[in-house]
Structure formats: structure tokens, C-alpha cells
Write a structure and sequence with these properties.
Length: 376
């Protein structure tokens, strides 16, 4: 395959790890012999950045996260029409909705299009309602039959997919979602005092940072409950929680109920994540399910100890007692206890060699190798 046309599809360009990963891939792989295209729904936080960075960007008006049979059917036909016009060699889907509609649309064109899907985390998880879990597993098995390669960002998800016979060994590929490698020393012109002032935080305050959205998956309620315990014992602690989402008002209500107005700040979607990490004493996630969050890799590259629920592939990068603490999923009291331990512990160990697979340059290299191999 002398020249390769690759159409990436993602549901919406929200401010999240999968979205940033896709944007980076589309931009940086667009060099001979590869030409890239991006199809996505409208209204994402990163739309503006995509318009600036991506040459071949196509919005699919009907493509959205929420389930709507009529709109989903319309989105399917819009994706199919766009793919038919582009005539790509490879269709690479990301995220659940785009993964369903995009793969089916590519398959129905019948043009020997190679289909790749990246699993950033499955829609099913332990403890989920049995009917939902069974349905999602069935759907993944069905879609896998029309997929040439499945990329997994976490070994946990890949092992589960193999065990559940969603995929097979020859079909599965482990490629970590990469991040830009930065350290506190590499941040030029970073003014700690000015950044604290902009956030309304006093000097010498302990800062616990969560780079997550206000959605059920990220489970912000447990973070607020943990904060209520920690801040009673250490009042000089502030939780910073980024992102947006449908749980914002309920989270604000819970913050008020626990009298944490001065100790728990919802600071909205942010692009200055490395500067926030430079301020942080602890990074934290209370996710109920995950693939392998890029924000965690960013934190560890910045040598910020992490305290996270043991969800998905988190244990593949967070080493309990070494660079942070793993916490039983759903146990907010244990989460609070580990926040306090992390604030007092001084001998965390960070080794960037352990994180080599999470370098975004490594991700691009392995993706390119995969695309070229499909043309052999």
C-alpha cells in the first residue's frame, strides 16, 4: 500500500484523554505515505483546536453521545456517505458510539476497508446490572467480527476481551494512549504564585488534584465524600476538580451539604493541566471504571504521587506504595485515608523508564507500524 488514507472517527471532541490522543494522531500521522481524516460530532470543547490543527476535518451533525434511535440512524448514514466519498483504506474508530456506527458504516461499503477500533475502556464493568453487562459484551463480540484489529490502551481490558472471547490474540494489539512528556523543570515561565492567586488558593495550601469530568464514570460524589473526611483533619487542604458534565449541579449540592465551599473547587475544563500538576501535592481519581487514564500518566511523569480507585488498567501504571496508593473501588473512606497518607509521605519513587510506553511518540510509532502492516 504505497499511499494510505486513514479515516479516524470519534463521537465528540470533549476534553478527555481519548480525544486528545486522537487529535494528536490525526495531526502527526498526516505525512507521506499516510493521509489522515477526522470525522466527529459537533459541540465538543476541543472543536476549536481541531479546526486549527486538522486539515481534513469533517463534522457529522447527527453524531452525539446520547442514545437516540432516529439521530443514530441519521448519523450512520452521514458517516457512511462521508466514508464513501473519502474512500479510505483504513477506518479507525474511537469511543463507544463512533465505534458502533463507524465500524458498521465501513463494513457496509464492502470496499475491503480495513477496520481498526481502539478500546479506551469498555462500557461494561464489574458490579454493573447483569442485563446491561450481558448486552454490552454481546455487542462487542458482534462488532469484533467485522473488525480487523482491536487496539487496547490497557492490558486489563485486553485480557478481559480475550477471556470473554470478544477478541482473539491475532486481532488484539496493546498500544498505550500516549501523553506529552513534561516535568516540573521543563515548564517555562511558570509562575506558581500567580497561578495560585488565579485559583484563589493561599500559599502553603495542600492541593489534591483530579483531572476528570463530572460524569458517572468518574464518580465525583465519592471524591467530595473523601474530601469531607480529609478537610476535617487537615483544613489547610483544597481539592481542585477539573472538567464539566451532567453531574455538576448535584456535585455542587453535595459540596454545599458537606460545607466544603472553600475546600473543594470545580474549576471547569482546563488546558493548563501541567501547571495544575506542578501545583499539586497529590493526584487522584475516583473512577468506577476505566481503560487507562492518560491524566494518570501525565501526573506520574510530573512526579506527582497518585491515589486512585483500582479500576481498569490503573494498576498497570500506579504501583501501590511506590508512586502512590491503589484504593478499593467505591470505598471513599479508604480513598480519604490514602489522601492523608500521600500528603504526609515523603519517599515516593518515580522512574520514567517505567512510563516509556506512555510517551506519545511511542504511541505514534506503534500506530504507524500497525497501519503499514495492514497493507502488507
Amino acid at each position: 500500500m504505497a499511499n494510505i488514507k486513514i479515516a479516524f472517527i470519534i463521537t465528540k471532541l470533549e476534553l478527555g484523554g481519548a480525544q486528545k490522543s486522537v487529535l494528536y494522531s490525526v495531526k502527526n500521522l498526516n505525512k507521506p505515505p499516510i493521509r489522515t481524516y477526522l470525522l466527529c460530532g459537533k459541540g465538543g470543547y476541543l472543536d476549536k483546536q481541531a479546526k486549527k490543527d486538522i486539515k481534513n476535518l469533517f463534522f457529522i451533525p447527527a453524531l452525539q453521545r446520547d442514545i437516540s434511535p432516529l439521530k443514530d440512524l441519521k448519523a450512520f448514514w452521514q458517516i457512511r456517505k462521508r466514508l464513501k466519498n473519502l474512500n479510505p483504506d483504513i477506518v479507525h474508530t474511537n469511543s463507544s458510539k463512533a465505534g458502533i456506527l463507524g465500524r458498521i458504516a465501513a463494513f457496509t461499503l464492502g470496499r475491503k476497508i480495513k477496520i481498526i477500533h481502539t478500546v479506551h475502556g469498555f462500557a461494561f464493568y464489574d458490579g454493573q446490572q447483569r442485563f446491561k453487562r450481558t448486552f454490552y459484551i454481546f455487542l462487542e463480540k458482534l462488532l469484533a467480527k467485522i473488525t480487523d484489529k482491536m487496539i487496547f490502551v490497557s492490558r486489563e481490558d485486553m485480557d478481559n476481551a480475550l477471556r470473554l472471547k470478544i477478541t482473539r490474540a491475532a486481532q488484539a494489539v496493546l498500544i498505550r494512549a500516549g501523553v506529552e512528556v513534561k516535568t516540573k523543570q521543563s515548564l517555562k515561565h511558570f509562575d506558581r504564585t500567580a497561578k495560585l492567586k488565579s485559583l484563589g488558593i493561599k500559599e502553603n495550601t495542600k492541593i489534591i488534584l483530579s483531572l476528570a469530568n463530572l460524569k458517572p464514570q468518574k464518580n465525583p460524589f465519592d471524591m467530595v465524600k473523601a474530601a469531607s473526611i480529609v478537610c476535617k483533619k487537615q483544613p489547610n487542604t483544597v481539592y481542585l476538580y477539573t472538567g464539566a458534565g451532567p453531574l455538576k449541579q448535584k456535585t455542587l449540592k453535595l459540596i454545599g451539604k458537606n460545607k466544603l465551599k472553600n475546600n473543594f473547587k470545580l474549576i471547569g475544563p482546563r488546558q493548563d493541566i501541567y501547571e495544575l500538576l506542578a501545583l499539586a501535592d497529590v493526584f487522584t481519581l475516583s473512577s468506577l471504571w476505566e481503560g487507562l487514564p492518560m491524566a494518570l500518566a501525565e501526573a506520574l511523569f510530573m512526579q506527582v504521587p497518585a491515589v486512585c480507585y483500582n479500576s481498569g488498567g490503573i494498576k498497570e501504571i500506579l504501583q501501590d506504595g511506590k508512586n502512590g496508593f491503589l484504593t478499593p473501588r467505591g470505598n471513599y473512606k479508604a480513598l480519604a485515608a490514602n489522601h492523608l497518607k500521600a500528603l504526609s509521605k515523603k519517599d515516593f519513587v518515580f522512574n520514567n523508564e517505567d512510563l516509556e510506553d506512555f510517551d506519545i511518540k511511542t504511541m505514534i510509532k506503534r500506530q504507524k507500524e500497525l497501519y503499514l502492516s495492514l497493507g502488507d
